[in-house]
Amino acid sequence: MPTEMELKIVAALLRRGRTLDLLSQALTLLALTFGLAQLLTSAIVPLNSGLVAVVVVLGLWQLYWALRVGLDAELFELMAADAGQLAERTQALDQALIRLNFQQDERAGRAWPERQQGALRLLRYQALLVGAQVVVLLAGILIFPWLG
User: Fold this and answer.
1) N or C end of the chain: which has fewer CB within 10 A?
2) Average of per-residue pLDDT across 119-137
């Protein structure tokens, strides 16, 4: 069983997903602004429109992971609040997640180290998507002058 401190550390790490989400939202808005500005000019470049679309899709995909990471952060914090009753609270959590169709029956009763690794994996997915947005935007910035 993990200690209260381990649960709080994982929750704190997962809360960093909010910062990633804000960065992704800013990048998505930047791309949309560029895409809309392109519509106002007579020179629409299909490659730029494609890059804008990719950044927006990556931003929406990142938002899905951000929502999941945020929920996990709150759940880990909730479980850390009463770590002395972790076994009972884990069973109650699993039952609630099953009733709400957020978890399949066979996933109930997983060990907390497995849950921690799974939650941190979601955070890594989120970070990878934000990184992909940055790479696509930088590629667009670097190739844009050559397209004119």
Assistant:
1) C
2) 97
